[in-house]
UniProtKB/TrEMBL annotation:
It is found in: Membrane. This is L-cystine transporter. The keyword Amino-acid biosynthesis does not apply. InterPro entries: Na-dicarboxylate_symporter, Na:dicarbo_symporter_sf. Belongs to the dicarboxylate/amino acid:cation symporter (DAACS) (TC 2.A.23) family. The chain crosses the membrane at residues 6-21, 33-50, 70-92, 104-125, 184-203, 223-243, 255-282, 335-357, 369-387, 393-413. It is a multi-pass membrane protein. The keyword Nucleotide-binding does not apply. Keywords: Membrane, Transmembrane, Transmembrane helix, Transport.
Length: 463
């Protein structure tokens, strides 16, 4: 018991150091990078001294998780209220319901198009690195995971594409505000859009009632944004704890065994990020300035492995640092967490399919196979939220559609967390890219905000 107490005392000192930086009004990027570095160092020290899975490490991480997953839970707490009031407020302020179609169409179109290109990148890197499922040994964990995936697939077989789309609609908005379904986020977006349009309609017919409703929404937005600021001020501490757990719990032997796939995955993810930056540059948005401003968001997505949990920080960064319109920021962050995910639904299923193809007699370089794969990946990425999945369920749908053995999707269970970190960061960046480009198209971007250098987080809280 003595060693865990010493470990937690060290962890407390690291938190105190981050608090000192926050009091000194350092920028959010500085705080996040410091938390990331301290988390890596502390996690590596735990693994080096005690080893992976030791009693001392597990007991220490049990309490470190209070900070890490407590922070993620607080973020999830404010997701639905933030989406609801922000989208209603954005529609009321714009007073142009006709732009909603252009906005949502632009965001969804970019998400799906970039997912299709991400699948093509997955095909490219898999063939470049010569990835194949033949060389991967199935251990007990991999076999158990494969059997579980086959069982889950049986339950998904009856879910059609039409069922997935139907699940987006908010039959019970109160249940969706509680996050009762995998598609609750999109359902709340749709509900908020209807309420916003209704508010605009009332304002046109009865200006006095419209003004009262707008005032109510303004008050609600002010309260929710203050709540968001309070939670986001905890970001460096959350990243410290989450990164400690990731590093301390990573099995180095498993990583080295599947190093080729890990490297190939991150090369593919890097190419997707380059694609995002090229799209931004093509639309007149400085890639370097953009990347500097969104880096804290990507780092949190990387450590938390939660696209949904990153929504508040995603929206806040788009509005306050990128200068995107509130409508585009909220729509892109919400849609991007549940559909068209470039890393989880685009790159990963494509790489897995190319790896498995030779084992079932398919040439992974066959143009017809590649075209079919990209089409299936793109369509399935639009409906992943309907079955509550992520990368694993995206792979299940794609492999099943291609008539490949879904049990082989369990081969990479040992390195799944390591790869998922990069995939989540790419997913979130894809959402912010879609929001930035759409906001630029519709003329809603505040160029003055985008042109400003980053200010300390303490100043942002007072803005």
């Amino acid at each position: 018991m003595l060693y865990p107490i010493i470990n937690l005392a060290v962890f407390a000192l690291l938190i105190a150091l981050l608090f000192k930086l926050q009091k000194a009004k350092k920028t959010l990027s500085t705080q996040v990078f410091t938390g990331l570095g301290l988390g890596v160092a502390f996690g590596a020290a735990l693994q080096f001294i005690y080893g992976v899975g030791s009693a001392e490490t597990n007991e220490t991480l049990e309490y470190v998780n209070i900070v890490g997953y407590g922070y993620v839970s607080l973020l999830k707490m404010i997701i639905m209220p933030l989406i609801l009031v922000s989208i209603i407020g954005a529609i009321i302020k714009v007073k142009d319901t006709g732009s909603l179609g252009k906005m949502s169409g632009g965001i969804i179109g970019i998400l799906l198009a970039t997912t299709a290109v991400s699948a093509l990148i997955g095909v490219f890197v898999s063939n470049l690195f010569g990835l194949s499922a033949d060389g991967i040994v199935q251990g007990a964990r991999e076999m158990a995971r494969g059997a579980a995936l086959e069982t889950r697939l049986d339950g998904l077989a009856s879910v059609s594409f039409a069922d997935m789309i139907t699940s987006f609609f908010p039959g019970n908005p109160f249940a969706d505000l509680a996050g009762s379904r995998p598609t609750s986020t999109i359902a709340v977006v749709i509900f908020a859009a209807f309420v916003g349009v209704a508010g605009v309609t009332v304002a046109r017919k009865e200006p006095e009632l419209g003004a009262s409703f707008e005032r109510f929404v303004d008050v609600a937005q002010s309260i929710v944004r203050t709540l968001v600021r309070m939670v986001l001020s905890l970001t460096p501490y959350g990243i410290l704890a989450l990164m400690t757990k990731v590093v301390a719990g990573s099995n180095v032997d498993d990583i080295l065994t599947l190093l080729n796939f890990v490297v190939a995955s991150y090369v593919g993810l890097a190419l997707i990020l380059v694609m995002h930056l090229c799209l931004l540059a093509f639309n007149g948005i400085s890639p370097l300035r953009y990347f500097k401003k969104v880096l804290p968001v990507l780092l949190f997505a990387f450590t938390s492995r939660s696209s949904a949990g990153t929504i508040p920080l995603n929206i806040d960064t788009q509005v306050k640092r990128l200068g995107n319109g509130e409508g585009e920021s909220n729509f892109s962050a919400s849609f991007g967490a549940t559909m068209g995910q470039n890393g989880c639904a685009g790159l990963y299923p494509a790489m897995l399919a190319v790896m498995i193809a030779p084992t079932v007699g398919i040439n992974p370089l066959d143009p017809s196979f590649i075209i079919s794969l990209i089409a299936i990946v793109t369509i399935s990425s639009f409906g992943i939220a309907g079955i509550g999945g992520g990368a694993t369920f995206a792979a299940l749908i794609v492999l099943s559609a291609l008539d490949m053995p879904v049990a082989l999707a369990g081969l990479l269970i040992s390195i799944e967390p390591l790869i998922d970190m990069g995939r989540t960061a790419v997913n979130v960046n894809g959402a912010m890219t879609a929001g930035s480009i759409t906001s630029k198209w519709l003329g809603h971007t505040d160029s003055k905000v985008f042109g400003q250098d980053e200010v300390p987080e303490a100043e942002l809280r007072n803005s």
